Amino acid sequence: MEVKVEGGGEFCDASYEKICMSTLRDISLESNIDSVYMNCNAAEHVFIISVKIGRVQSPITVSDMTIRGDERLTVTTETYVPKLLDLLWDRYGEKVEQISRLEIALKIGDDEMQKLMSQVVYDPRVDLNTRILDGIDRILPEGARVRQPIHSSGRITIIASENPIKEEWKEKAKAMLSKMTKGDL
Amino acid sequence: MYKIMMFTGGVYKFSELKERVHDIGGFILQEMVMQTETMMHLAFPEEEERIIRDKAKETGGKLKELPLAGAEIMVVVPSLGKHHAVDPMCDIAEFLRRKGAITNMMGLARGVGKRIAQITAREKEIIEECDAAVFVFGDFKECLEVKSKICEAVDVPYIITGGEPEVNIEHYVGNIGRKTARMRHKEEIDMLELLTEKIELLINDRRRELDEDPLATSPLFMKEILDLVLPPKAGEEFSTIMQLEGLRVKVEAGDEEKLKNIEIGKRKLSDICEIKKSEYDGYILKILPEAVTGNVF
Questions:
Q1: Antiparallel, parallel or unpaired: β A60-61 and A120-122
Q2: Mutating which of A16, A17, A45, A139 best tests the B interface, going by the most B Cβ atoms within 10 A?
Q3: What is the CATH number of the domain that holds B103?
Q4: Which of A1, B69, B130, B156 is deepest in the core (most CB within 10 A)?
Q5: A89-148 pLDDT, tens per residue?
Q6: Number of domains in chain A
Q7: In the predicted model, is pLDDT for residue A183 greater than 70?
Q8: d(CA B129, nearest CA chain A) in Å
Q9: What are the b/e assignments for A141-151, b being 16+ CB within 10 Å?
């Protein structure tokens, strides 16, 4: 993930680069984002942030995170266990029992078990935009509560300020965006 | 003048050290015994330091100076949101506590932004109950310059911290700003040290002023008496907090009259103190100068 911050002065740019990196890493978005560009204009209190969405993990199926046993599943990736249990309880109710941290007993037939193994537990693409917007909210200064999104494919761009957003800032953001699309960021 | 230090060591001859502190007219402010480890905050007359140092050496323990002991400091952030808490707000508060201060943390209701940043009259009053304040702001120079104006309303010594290294603001410490991780690197610790030094200067100025116009009695002595008359409830910590000019006392509503009638020397507490219900917690007792109350003992 590449991060570039401009316009805030030497210290602020370095500080916000660190903030971008650690915030996106904290909410596990590091691998889903190609680059982040941020422009800070503290004098006019306008902040423009543009996030380029990168590769997104393919959907996680039951077979990706468990090993099938005799009427039981052994979890190999614990991260998605709450979502898996949610799915199993919803589908099979009392037939499901979590024996231990990584063992789930399932009283279902072989055919049903076969079908279950290809079921999607979690699709990271579903809530990707929400998670990126949450990350942006954490990065942008708290006082910049007036937000304006700029639409473009493969990117999420937000203008933020404490003042009403002027037309000239929108134009500036769009110009910046087209420059970025052509260039590296 | 009293000196406040922290003793850490073992249980060997610990009671003898406590006795020695009392013998020379000192006070035990805080004491903790954890199996074989001990920690104690002690106050004693400055001229008796040699005696305490010798005794501490005999017990095999260590003495550490607490330059901010006896002061209550408010750490103020623009909001309690994830942008400011827990870092660097808690790092700063923790560092001040290590230097002996009692810290409170406060998020302003409308402190965020540049033009829209405000401080309410109640927030100002709460901050002014403490001996000093540390305003923890963000990175941008332009915002810091505007925001520093809301701090000017506060009538206690204060320090402003922010990111930009050089800003033309009084009592400013830079290179801190917004953080997303704990301040544990050397250069960050150095900045926290610098911040503490600047607060220490402000607190010492106030202490010097109080020396020139001494209080009717020492807050240390008053704390000792209050702890005897109104002992802390089981599990309650810091029921009496020392301030430079008095105490913050956390008493139950019914005990207010009892508090006013406590005898300090020849006088009642209400005669030598201004008692005010705190906007935040408990009661604030502001000891009047001896010049106003006359001799108490």
A1: antiparallel
A2: A45
A3: 3.40.50
A4: B130
A5: 999 999 999 999 999 999 998 999 999 999 999 998 898 999 999 999 999 999 999 999
A6: 2
A7: no
A8: 27
A9: bbbbeeebebe
Q: What is the ipTM, given to two decimal places? A: 0.85
Domain around B38: 2-65
B9, B62 Cβ separation under 8 angstroms: yes
Helix (H, G, I), strand (E, B) or coil at B265: coil
- pLDDT above 80 for B238: no
Residue labelled with tokens 């240390």: B220
Judge contact between A158 and A147, C-beta under 8 A: yes
Token pair 């999104």: residue: A149
Whether residue B29 lies inside any domain: the answer is: yes
Q: Quick one: A77 and A157 in the same domain?
A: no
Question: Helix B49-59 to helix B14-23 angle, to the nearest 10 degrees?
Answer: 170
pLDDT greater than 70 at residue B54: yes
The reply to whether B214 falls in a domain is no
CA distance B154 to A32: 46
Cα–Cα distance list, B69 to B30, B64, B223 (Å)? 11, 11, 14
User: Do A170 and A132 belong to one domain?
Assistant: yes
| A13 inside domain | yes
Cross-chain residue pair A8–B113, CB shorter than 8 Å: no
Q: What proportion of chain B, given as a percentage, has pLDDT over 90?
A: 77
Total domains present in chain B: 3
Interface contact flag, B141 A162, Cβ < 8 Å: no
